[in-house]
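Practice problem: predict the structure.
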Amino acid sequence: MINNTNTKKLLLKGGRIIDPFSKKTFVGDLLVENGTISKIADSISSKGKDFNVVDCKGLIVTHGFCDIHAHFREPGREDKENLLSGSLAALAGGFTQVCTMPNTDPIIDSPEHIYYIASKSKNLPIDIFPIGAVSKNSEGEHLTEMMLMKKNGAIAFTDDGMSIQNPQFMKLALTYAKMVDLPILNHSEDIYLRNEGVMNASKTSSNLGLKGNTSLAEAIMVYRDLLLASSLDAKFHLLHVTTKEAVDLIKQFKSKNITSEVCPHHLYFSDEDIDAFNTNLKVGPPIRSKADRKKLIEAVKSGVIDCIATDHAPHTLEDKETTFNDAEFGMIGLESCFGVVNKVLVKENGMSLKSLIEKLTVNPRKVMNIDRDLFEVGKKAQITIIDPNQKWTFSNEDIYSKSSNSPFIGHDMVGKVKHVVSKNKFYTL
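Answer:
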């Protein structure tokens, strides 16, 4: 259960402070007064003060995490998730800011829809930034009103879930998005090469009798999009990269305007893990091979891939408790995120904790042009406190989402979010 108190006078004492923006790391204290950072020092005395003192010895005190790819389902499918339940799931995962995808019902494809999300989010425990659709009804034919949507709070544009197939339309979208200085995000997958595959095309898919989705479906679309974006010098972000071919292409086209993300489940699982027909492992794009997984880990460590995003995608039991072919694509991922990526990247593959934190804090905010200098005196406090060494097992009790479609249930994690400071509240998990 998430418990909270106000931050009238909150002293975080003796934690290892990691500021990924200024690249400073030190053991010290951090004072929050009325939701605002008032002091950061090696030591802050609480003697004679009515501070709420939190012992952070042995813990990491850092920026609140930022997820730039999540589905909160509101409006239209509040039975799966709504803005409030999604916010609680985010808090449980250490996230103080989330960018929400537009493939709701109706699709977020107008200034009015953007305003609805932005205004309703004001009273929620985290910051929510709405991403608008590129095209009307995400049909890939008519551009949305990008300038007006930006004025109402849109932070980027994507038809995520419906890849933009027409290259001329993608070129047009990139051109207009450049005019409003916002990035285009694309689910890079050629639907014809995907050929209705439900998992990675491999020996495993053949053995299971399941239709395969070839890695070329991603690679060819990635190549197209990178060529177009580079030729226009437009801001372009690759969603949920899964293949070694895509990584090689990103490396080739890498620039300040070309960014990319990877999801925890693509770092943790390979297609061989689907031998039990676990529908919670049915995601789009699919869980790939061991070789792809290894390449993704290397790309995150080297900086080729900029950030980690969850692609949190809630579904009902009915959506998932069916055959693998008929099940919906997607899994939830906010609550389990840090325990997964810390285990895979830091504990098993030697990535520094500081670098991992950058992938969860500074880098996603850079992609979306969100303020990254969070540990400045006078800033509203967005803080996540973690135990990087705590071993725990992910269970249904750790889920705050309305949905429980997670393949991580029963898996051992390393690293746990302990506290979060967001919007003048101190949360204990």
